[in-house]
Specification:
Helix 3 crosses helix 4, helix 5 crosses helix 11 and helix 8 crosses helix 10. The strands form five sheets. Strands 3-2-1-9-10-19 form a six-stranded mixed β-sheet, sandwiched between helices. By secondary structure, it is α+β, with helices and mostly antiparallel strands. It folds into four domains: 119 residues, ATPase, nucleotide binding domain (Nucleotidyltransferase, domain 5, 2-Layer Sandwich), CATH 3.30.420.40; 35 residues, no CATH class; 103 residues, 2-Layer Sandwich (Nucleotidyltransferase, domain 5); 71 residues, Actin, Chain A, domain 4. The two termini are 22 Å apart. 40% of the residues lie in helices and 28% in strands.
Amino acid sequence: MLGKIFDWFSNDLAIDLGTANCLVYAKDKGIVVNEPSVVAVHHGYRGEKKVLAVGKEAKEMLGRTPGSIRAIRPMKDGVIADFEVTQAMLKDFIQKAMSGAKLIKPRIIICIPFGVTEVEKKAVKESAEQAGAREVYLIEEPMAAAIGAGLPITDPAGSMIVDIGGGTTEVGVISLGGIVSSRSERVAGDKFDEAIVNYIKKKYSLLIGERTAELIKISIGNAYPFENNEIKTYEVKGRDLIAGAPKTVELTSDEIREALSDPVNEVIEAIKILLEKTPPELAADIVDNGIILAGGGSLLANLDILIKEKTGLPVAIAEDPLTCVVRGCGKALENIDLLKQVTTLS
């Protein structure tokens, strides 16, 4: 009875604690926070840390801070790399989502990559509790993405979801409300950016930052040639590693496709490996239903065309792939029976 009263008065939240972005879904309200997973920290003379900015404001500082201030991404490869800073970031986002609305601590459901260790699960749980959660549920990302994409997860039929985030690519086959088989690869949006940085450094002896690499990826990045073999260009500014002075170079979409070929092929290989391990009956369902792509990485131009060509299966991109995971969490949060079926109370 007391639990039901708590449920009535608390402002329950679903959180997609991503490597690149953190999204918070509030029960009955929808997505209330969508910010980069970045925290600006000031380091004092005695080693003490003070959080200066969180989210968008902190991301603007990446690569531009003086020695005493660092813009940190506390999540790496989908898991917590800096516990203290993650806790501060979570607390800030939870407070923004709650906006002082309710007195009772919220029940929180958080996404985790498939196959994370018990230690990593505990770190996520403790961060949420320290940030103000009453109860913490954990949901695996392939399941959350499948719910958010509107796949029939409780049906006795196989559905395949590929969630390409910032730190990890989660590939899952789901049937009867459970993950039948899944694979998590630490190759995703961040590795795409890294590949662009390394390519430009090697070919042009030009050093660029990760924010610039991300802009190049969004502007002219592609996994498969554009229609009518159109070539797009992008003017990039960076530091010449030989002369040491600023330099401008014009890049083409063909060059960026070449730069991204290795990490993109790793994603495709993960899909192929999982297809090989999928039970025959479910594999037959996937032939009919195809593969659904979610996550920010799925927005890389023509990635769906390349996956279709390499696997021979129908491929579709989920509606609003960037928010697919958190919307799936939100649906589970608003349906208590579904919540109990697809999550674990950590």
